Amino acid sequence: MEKEGEFTLLKNNNGINFENTLSFSERLNPYTYRNFYNGGGVAIGDINNDGLDDIYLTGNMVENKLYLNKGNFNFEDITLKAGVSCPDVWSTGATFVDINADGFLDLYVCKSGPPGGKNRKNELFINNGDLTFTERGNEYNLDIFGLSVHSAFFDYDQDGDLDCYILNNSFRSIGGYDLIKGKREISDPKNQGNKLLENIDGKFIEVTQQAGIYNSEIGFGLGITLSDFNNDGWVDIFISNDFFEKDYLYINNKDKTFTESSDSYFKSMSLGSMGADSADLNNDLLTDLFVTEMLPKTFDRKKTKAVYDSWDKHALAVSKGYHYQYPRNVLQRNMGDNDFFEIGRFSNLSASEWSWASLIFDMNNDGFKDIIISNGIYKDLLDRDYLNYISDQQLVSNLIKTKKEGIKKLIDLMPSDPVKNQVYLNKENFLFEEVTDKIGFSMKTFSNGLAYSDLNNDGSLDIIVNNVNMPAMIYQNNYQSNNSIQFLLKYDGNNIDGIGSKIILKLDNGKKSMLEHFPSRGFQSSISNKLHFGIGNSIEVDSVFVIWPNKKISVFKDLKANEVHLLDFNNGKKIDKKLDYLSDTKKVDFKKNDLFKFSHNENNFVDFNKERLLIEMQSNEGPSITVSDLNNDGYDDFFVTGAKNQSSSLFIYESGTYKEYTSPFNEYSKSEDVEAYFFDSDNDGDQDLYVGSGGKAFSKYDQLLNDRFYINNGQNNFEYSNKSFVFEKPFATGSIDVSDYDNDGDLDVFVGERFNQNIYGLPVSGHLFKNIGDNNFIEEKSKSFDKLGLITDAKWVDLNDDKLMDLVIVGEWMPITILINNGKGFDNKTSSYNLNKTNGLWKAIEVIDLNNDGLLDFVVANSGKNSFYKPGMKIFINDFDSNGTVEQIICEKVDDKYFPILDKDELLSQIPALKKKLFYYKDYSKFSMDDIFGNEILNNCISRELNELDSSIFLNSSKGFIKTPLPYEINYSSVYDIEILSQKSNITKVLFGGNQSKVKPQFGKYDASNGWLVELVNNNSELKSNTPINLNIEGEIRKFTKFEFGKIKMFLAGINNKEIECYEINWNY
Question: pLDDT tens, 991-1006?
Answer without folding.
Answer: 999 999 999 999 999 9
